[in-house]
Design a protein that fits this description.
The structure is a single chain. The protein is α/β, with parallel strands linked by helices. Helix content is 39%, strand content 21%. The strands form two sheets. A seven-stranded mixed β-sheet has the order 7-6-5-8-9-11-10, with helices on both faces. The chain has a four-stranded mixed β-sheet with strand order 1-2-3-4. The relative contact order is 0.12.
Length: 276
């Protein structure tokens, strides 16, 4: 893991934290909190443009703290937390619709879910809604910037629907490499272990997703990690991938679930099917 930590340290030196124009004292305080958490320098905005400040500081990007959200800017692109399609998916489940991820997980109230690739957290939000107050969802995120922005967003994002808000607030976020975390867990610590790795070829190109891709861990999941996940899962390991992906076969997933015409499907390995 020394290599991973070295890469993380190098990345920490490639960005800084600042504020919006004319920030309040609360905004400055929050900005300094983010800088401390990310072990990154805090820079006064001084009415400079983001492009000018980035060049002056000689960094790759800027975490910008404003009154309405915290964003990461790089190369004219912005990344920030939002719940995505989680609200529509939760409402669909309440109305009796099928959610392919929840089906693949065979998720039920009270379950413990470990999301090894949290990203924006939309899948974890839906899972949190299903497992409810008696369940537990933990999200692991290797990128210190993504984890900080998503942790803050999950705890502060305003939404009029109480169920969505409660689901977001219940998710625990840990900034750590998932392989490292899995190696330290006791057997069967969670009911379901879930992976949604970055696709080798992105399905959609957008400035928003491109900004996230710059921040995210690009390394594919390996067989050893799946082995650790199987030790950790009491019931099953699930991975999201493109339909027809060779990743399922490479990693030993013996079943693929999903809609007949869906471009994205879910590989499943059940513990009860393992040969011991």
């Amino acid at each position: 893991m020394a290599g991973h930590h070295q890469e993380a340290a190098e990345f920490n030196r490639s960005f800084a934290v600042t504020t919006s124009h004319r920030p309040s004292q609360a905004g400055i305080h929050l900005g300094k909190q983010f800088a401390d958490e990310l072990q990154a320098p805090f820079a006064e905005r001084n009415d400079l443009s983001l492009k000018t400040l980035t060049a002056r500081l000689q960094v790759r990007g800027l975490v910008v703290v404003s009154t309405h959200r915290v964003s990461y800017f790089t190369g004219g692109q912005e990344f920030f937390f939002h719940p995505g399609l989680a609200k529509l998916r939760i409402n669909g489940l309440k109305n009796g619709k099928t959610d392919q991820m929840i089906n693949a997980m065979s998720l039920r109230p009270g379950d413990r879910v470990l999301d090894c690739t949290l990203g924006l957290g939309a899948d974890s939000i839906v899972a949190s809604s299903v497992v409810g107050v008696n369940g537990r969802v933990t999200g692991l995120e290797d990128s210190c910037v993504i984890s900080a922005l998503v942790r803050h967003g999950l705890s502060t994002y305003p939404d009029p629907e109480e169920e969505l808000t409660r689901a977001m607030r219940r998710i625990g976020v840990i900034n750590i490499n998932h392989r490292e975390y899995l190696a330290g867990l006791a057997p069967q610590s969670y009911d379901v272990v879930y992976f949604d790795p970055m696709f080798r070829l992105p399905r959609l190109h957008s400035p928003y997703m491109d900004a996230m891709r710059v921040l995210a861990n690009p390394h594919p999941v390996d067989r050893e990690t799946i082995g650790l996940a199987l030790r950790t899962a009491a019931r099953r390991v699930v991975m999201k991938e493109r339909r027809g992906s060779n990743e399922f076969e490479r990693l030993g997933f013996d079943r693929v679930d999903g809609g007949r015409y869906a471009p994205v499907v879910y590989g499943v390995i059940e513990r009860k099917n393992l040969v011991t």
